[in-house]
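Need tokens for this chain, all 169 residues.
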Amino acid sequence: MPTHPPQRVLHFAARVSACVALAAGTAQASHYSFANISDPSFLTRDEQRQLGRAGILDTATLLKWTASAPRRRWLAQHTTLAPERLELLATQCDLLRIEGIGPSVLVVLQKAGIRDSRTLGRADATELLTHLRSAARGTAMAQKLPQTDTLATWIRTARRLRPVLDLAD
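Here are the structure tokens for all 169 residues:
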């Protein structure tokens, strides 16, 4: 079981990790992994507030603290978020590691059956576009879906990502 630092250490670590990524040139504006947790549309204001009190200020830190079952249990005890909700947030943050995937596309990807980067890495771009069209039907995203070549790039990226999630399959 991991040792969990106090909230002020988590808060400081989130800021340091974002600064290190910016200095190293690994964080990009279109890459959501270092987005402030108030930005993603998949978090309610109450969830943002609770996570902020736990020192989680960005999606990279949220992924770190939701990637494993023991950490999700710890975070659930220190917030009112259920472990199942934290697992869903973990899968969402995992997909946000892929450049070009933002909160709006993320919702459609998950409706189309793409749970996380591992699932995306096993997808076929043409079939995925068909599923995305079905999942986005009747929404504003239906007109903004990525093309097959973009999906193929995301799939290749997902295959190269280091697995970070410990999920019940």
